[in-house]
Amino acid sequence: MTAINSALLFLINLTFDLYIMALLLRFFLQYQKADFYNPVSQAVMQITSKPFLKPLRKIIPGYYGLDFAIIFLAFSVLIVKFILINIITVHYLPNIFSIIIWSIGSFIESVLSLYFWCIIISAIMSFIPNFQFNPIYGVFNKLTNPVLNPIRKKIPAFGGFDFSPFIACILITLLQILISQPIINLAFSF
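The structure assignment produced for this chain is given below.
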């Protein structure tokens, strides 16, 4: 692979992954009913609203607080990413089964990665004095508490130190290894 191809792959992965993370962040902020007047929520809303999401919402409705237009857009972005990567690396279009399976595995991987990084960021912010009053901290707490609270119930804090972020990150990594990676690998067998 040439240096230009490597640079192009890096840029494709970076831009597509950042956009997918923004879409998933918006989905989970809406699902958790986060404060949408928060600056973080406002930034995510502005990044993801245009140009694709607004027209999709007219076609794909949401149900029970779940915004299916965001999910559809995230899958579409993953499909385009996979096709572009295949064209650059192996110079052919993958078959439809590979595309669908890879997109499912990558979607699961993206959700798990989003939660992993939100937990890490939230844990780091909790060590910074007076940062608990920052609006960013509130958003990350709103996102991570549904994952961390069940762990906190089973394993309480020892000596004032909360081990739930550490345990959650281990569990998320195990889920990536046991679920999303085998699905992604299966896509390449077609």
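Interim note for the steering committee: The first helix runs from residue 3 to 31. Residues 128 and 170 are 23 Å apart (CA to CA).
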